[in-house]
Amino acid sequence: MLKRIILCPLAALLIGGCVKEKEAVMQEPQTLKDAYADYFLIGNIVKGANMDDSLYNILTTHHNIATAENDMKPQYLQRTKGVFTFDDADAIVNKALSQGLKVHGHTLAWHQQTPAWMNQDGVSRDEAVANLTTHARTVVEHFKGKVVSWDVLNEAIADNPPNPEDWKASLRPSPWLQAIGADYVEIVFKAAREADPAAKLYYNDYNMDNTNKATAVYNMVKDINERNPDVRGRPLIDGIGMQGHYSSHTNPVNVENSLQRFISLGVEVSITELDIQSGEGGKQTDAQKITQGLVYAALFNVFKKYAEHIGRVTMWGTDDGSSWRKEACPTMFDDSLSPKPAFFAALDPDKFIAENKVDVETKEAKQSEAVYGTPDEDAWSQAPSIPIDSYLMAWQGASGTAKILWDETSLYVLVNVNNAEMNKANQNAYEQDSVEVFIDENNGKTPFYEKDDGQYRVNFDNEATFNPASMSEGFESQTNVSGRSYTVSLKIPFRTITAKEGDVIGFDAQINGASAQGARQSVAMWNDLSGSSYQDTSGLGVLKLVKR
Ligand code: 9MR
User: Which of 197, 293, 367, 375 has the most other CB atoms within 10 Å of its CB?
Assistant: First the structure.
């Protein structure tokens, strides 16, 4: 339907001001909250009780629900036991309500920004339970009638858990888990429900596009809701929050898969902390802005498709300058508060995609051959050498080459690495000087791992790590260090195939280069530069199994 609206320069309107007015006939909504009025609420964060007016204008112009970025977290509301400090949070909530915004509460239980007296310092289980329930009850009761929904529990599941069918074993080892045990999850939800039966209660987490994490969350919510089907009239957990701290490499297919699984539980889903990293050092090229816009557009199209089950889509930052990840320019407005392509992408995804989707030349995956034979000098001399020297990050550190052999049961990989620091100080295995091999036995190129997909990592000191953990079975490796070079030989059993001549498998090899200070400073690859090979096999190179 044609609408008559007052048109002012778009940028001025977008940040809530209007310099020159002129009447025009416009067809399309100009604000996010209007564009999505029939779909879901649109949210953003409030940075504090005294948030800058121009940022607040973006909030009220485009959004209809607000989340406090920090001020409602446990350390701000109850730093000292029994002393609740609601002043800043009250100011945020009352201002938002007076401006016609709804308010979402974030967060009652988390492993961060929580005072140690609550669950550390040797508190007993009983004390920790009392601390958790008192905090949740007091906070929820305080905001009763003002806050429509709560992130009751934040980030309780570990990243990429190896056995996601067992949700309890997949819990992050947070102080709450250590002090109470796995039932802390139910305990905090029950306390919140009793305190305000009308508020919607959410479980909230990041990396939910990772199949293993999403599976563990799915199993947790399913189990708890099946055991608590009627707590004050409905299942205990009302909703799942997919935070959505994404990057330009995020595959919307993985987001959609998790969304579908959560919806199948009968719960509401919300996108609770959306931002999309792109660019470095606070700068983005024009091409990066468009790529980022295309990811925003693709995601908003996914959200529209499932709108019936989505409560709200909340962005984590009004603008790049005030974002927690400002180096990576993740929001829709730039430092000077002008709308970026990402804004127009969210406003009208189809139009943005139609105007900007360049026919990206489909990059052919690199191809090489694995030669039949078990490792010996003669066999290795037959195998072609592939370079591992395409860098994923700005720094160009350790690189190398790989040769591959195969027989019916296993793949044998020999990697030579040069220019390494030989540092394994970092507790994250991927930040140590190490070699990784990715295998996709059916070359299915799926955006998530299937049973035939695995990741194998060996550091220069021959310490191996696996994803998923079950891939350790039958695996063997040796390393040999000489100066700044090392070699790694890996024997990787096939999991789902009996290999034969002519088979084609997905394959990639990666070299992680640590700095002398023990942080990963470079990543060299054979083929896949997406940075997602640990959960997405679509970018791997291709290996043909041949006999010579
Ligand atoms: O944006 C928040 C930042 O200002 C805080 O310093 C940080 C503390 O850990 O928390 C940030 O918000 C987080 C949110 O509460 C939970 N999900 C991840 C968000 C980004 O770290």
Answer: 293
Distance CA 303, CA 270 (A): 9
Closest residue by Cα to atom 19, ligand 1, is 273
Domain end, chosen from 331, 355, 379, is at: 355
For 313, the token pair is 């889509």
Tokens read off for 206: 């990041």
Nearest-5° Cα angle at 340, 334 to 343: 120
The model carries a pTM of: 0.79
SS (H, E, C) 108-161: EECCCCCCHHHHCCCCCHHHHHHHHHHHHHHHHHHCCCCEEEEEEEECCECCCC
Binding pocket residue ranges, ligand 1, CB within 6 Å? 69-70, 112-113, 154, 206, 243, 273, 324
- Distance from the alpha carbon of residue 117 to the mean position of ligand 1, in angstroms: 21
Distance CA 10, CA 18 (A): 9
User: What pLDDT, on a 0 to 100 scale, did the predictor assign at position 244?
Assistant: 95
Q: Exposed, middle or buried, 259 (CB in 10 Å: 0-12/13-18/19+)?
A: buried
Choose which residue among 51, 202, 315, 324 to substitute to test ligand 1 binding: the one with the highest number of ligand atoms within 8 A of its C-beta. 324
pLDDT band at 16 (very low <50, low <70, confident <90, very high): very low
Task: Specify whether 351 is located in the same domain as 431.
Answer: no
List pLDDT tens digits, range 99-153: 999 999 999 999 999 999 999 989 999 999 999 999 999 999 999 999 999 999 9
Q: How far is the CA of 53 from the centre of ligand 1 (A)?
A: 22
Q: What is the dihedral of CA 259, 264, 270, 274, to 10 degrees?
A: -10
Residue 103: inside a domain = yes
For residue 106, give the ligand 1 atom closest to its CA: 15
pLDDT tens for residues 390-439?
Answer: 987 767 899 999 999 999 999 999 999 999 999 999 988 999 999 999 99
Instruction: Give residue 539's domain range.
Output: 367-546
Please give the structure tokens belonging to residue 477. Answer: 């490796």
Going by pLDDT thresholds of 50, 70 and 90, the confidence category of residue 14 is very low
What is the pairing mode between strands 410-418 and 399-406?
A: antiparallel
Region 56-81 average pLDDT = 98
**How far is the C-alpha of 205 from the C-alpha of 186, rounded, in Å?**
16
Domains in the chain, number: 2
Q: Which residue has the tokens 């290795």?
A: 380
CA-proximal residue: ligand 1, atom 20 (nearest): 324
Tell whether 371 and 349 lie within a shared domain.
no
Beta-sheet pairing, 410-418 with 504-514: unpaired
Same domain, yes or no, for 300 and 157?
Answer: yes
Residues 478-515: tens digit of each pLDDT: 999 999 999 999 999 999 999 999 999 999 999 999 99
Integer Cα distance of 457 and 415 in angstroms: 12
Instruction: Verify that 50 and 86 share a domain, yes or no.
Output: yes
SS3 state at 246: strand
**Are 52 and 198 found together in one domain?**
yes
